[in-house]
Amino acid sequence: MSTHYALGIDIGGTNSAYGLVDKKGNVEYENNLPTTDFILPEDLVSAIFEDLKEQNLLDSIIGISIGAPNGNHFTGNIEYAPNLSWKGIVPLAKLFHSKFNKPSQLTNDANAAAFGEKLFGNATDLQNFVTITLGTGLGSGIIIDDEIVYGEEGFAGEYGHIRVIPNGRICGCGRKGCLEAYASSTGVKRSITELDSENKDDSILNKIENPSAKDVFESAKKGDLFAKEIVEYTAQILGSSLADFACFSNPKAYVLFGGIAQSGNNFSERVKFHLEENILHVLKGQIEIRTSSLHNRNAAILGAAATVFLKNN
């Protein structure tokens, strides 16, 4: 067996996925464990170690990279992640290094997605781009001149928490009007009840118990007028926000990742339309909207593993 595999790990509030990945993005082995089953982070580290030991894969690992919410690349710690049962500061990179005796690093999950797109996905030809992860929340990974932007404390790229609507919806961070509260699966779902429309009463969504963001996009494809309004509203807020963000990083492309991004070409086209409507004149026609090619390819594992290979290039 090749001795050149990266161990990519994605820590989530519900499940933690991990796998061995080669330089071409092939996943040799993968598995997942319920994060909530482990009271202590050390227990999860040990469980992953024992699984890979049983599979006779430990010697093939050249490095370990972990993507996690509130992951700080500089410290190797998860710091006060609200959606994890492990509270406070968790020195996760140190725990993996101590157990596996392999180089170990940690980054936040949106940065891991950017690394994955750069090495294995739809950004292999780009030096300046931003990944926008559209899931339960909204994250961003910023690549400028082929380098990830971490910032002073390691938390650059929290674009989901830039306020876009004055005194708008309350966000999970405690502030009002954050982009995440509108352009995420949670935000789309909130629009079902919070967006005013004369088409709301006749919507298909009223016949669905606890409708999801996926239901909104599927209903829009069926011609539901209210669902189409929600999709357009979401695209307008996201596109306009990306136009503003372009003034900072001047990307060649935005790469959209997540369930919303995979809902069809119409959404990305509408995001592009609103970006162009609001972009600085000198940047008009210069920025692409791409959709991730990693959505169904173990994206979380690939993204984390990519950081090992990029560091060793």
Question: What does this 3D model show about the protein?
Answer:
This protein is α/β, with parallel strands linked by helices and 313 residues long. The chain has 2 domains: 127 residues, Nucleotidyltransferase, domain 5; 166 residues, Nucleotidyltransferase, domain 5 (2-Layer Sandwich), CATH 3.30.420. Helices cover 34% and strands 21% of the residues. The protein contains 8 helices and 13 strands. It has a 5-stranded mixed β-sheet. Helix 7 links the parallel strand 12 and strand 13. 45% of the residues are buried.
Topology:
Layout: E1 5-11, E2 15-21, E3 27-34, H1 41-54, E4 61-68, E5 71-72, E6 77-79, E7 89-90, H2 92-100, E8 104-108, H3 109-120, E9 129-134, E10 138-144, E11 147-148, H4 185-194, H5 213-221, H6 225-249, E12 253-257, H7 265-278, E13 288-291, H8 299-312
Parallel strand pairs: 1-4, 4-8, 9-12, 12-13
Antiparallel strand pairs: 1-2, 2-3, 5-6, 6-7, 9-10, 10-11
Helix pairs in contact: 1-2, 3-8, 4-6, 5-6, 6-7
> Could you name the ranges where pLDDT drops below 50 across 5 or more consecutive residues?
none
CATH class identity of the largest domain: Alpha Beta
Shape designation: globular
CATH-defined fold name of the largest domain? Nucleotidyltransferase, domain 5
For this entry, give a set of tags.
globular; Nucleotidyltransferase, domain 5; 2 domains; 313 residues; 5-stranded mixed sheet; 8 helices; alpha/beta
